[in-house]
Amino acid sequence: MTTAHTPVLHPDLSPAQRDCLEALPLSGNHLVSGPPGSGKSLLAAHRAVHLALTDRPTLLLSRSNLLRQLLRDTLRGLTVPGAPVEAATVHSWIQRRFGRDVPRTEDGWFDWPTLTRRAADTLGEDESTTPHLVIDEGQDLSPGFYRLVRLTAASVTVFADECQRLTETNSTLAEIAEALGRSTGRTEISGNHRNTREIAALAEHFRTGGSRPALPFRSGALPVLHHYTGPGDLADDIAGLAARQPRHRIGVIVNSLRTAADLMSRLERASLAQEPQLYSSTATSGRYRDLDLSRPGVVLVHRASAKGLDFDTVVIADAESDAGTDPTSAALRMAYYVMITRARERLVLGWQGSRLPRHLEGLDGWVGTR
């Protein structure tokens, strides 16, 4: 197997992204970190294609199924004949590797110590089929997972941002590197190629740690803090956004599937130019499972599935659902940091009720109101 660099460049990559990609050897374990908008998911897809050129099975893994769909579509534009890459969820890959009856723990996740012992017992049995693994949004997986893949992969490359840890089974960058081994290479990628300066500045208000990245040069409209009188007012506003920006992808991020279902029903009756889409992690197939994230129109998604995605316009629809949460909570601040940074051009922070939620107080200068 060759370990020489074999760049597969894409015209949309920035010079910094190309330098990052070309500096990664095709062997060993590596951890690439960067802020939202730095292009980690795109780089993860490129990295997977590079590794596939070594004639070894290569998988691009994510925890989120919706992110898997986005990565799958990205890979289609990077296809290299004879070097296939599969985008898969961690769940599906674990069950394929260890069987459908894989042991689980009380939290519903896998029993990582047991699986690691199984992997150790079969280490080296079929070296030719041992895959390269590339993992996107790797901060949402536990150290136990990384101790397992250290034994089950020819190489592991992780793209992560520890300021976006939204799950209970998460890892810091230090924990990922320690679990993968002392020889793990560390790389940082900078730059924000997604958000406007105004959106990125608001996101920084919610940042929980780490060094502050430079704000983007591209400027745009101020984010909007919008008080809705009720569900009908919210749906009408979203329908109006879709009508005024028919080519935009509008992501409506909610904290309640009940809110999502109600909005979907209202938007379907609004006769939008593009049929609205709703993602449900509980659906096993069909229209609520498989989405077309590339086409214009409205996409309704729970905040737990929003990471790694981006939209021209983002509406955070039900900020009042967090009114009872401590506004200094790290989990709450991370959630808003992630949701805000999904927006490329426009952002609406929506709330209902008689009193502005505490975590949205004091945003003068960062947002406009209506």
UniProtKB/TrEMBL annotation:
Pfam families: AAA_19
Gene Ontology MF: a single term: ATP binding
GO biological process terms held by the UniProt record: recombinational repair
Gene3D superfamilies: P-loop containing nucleotide triphosphate hydrolases
Name of the protein: AAA family ATPase
The species this protein was found in: Streptomyces mexicanus
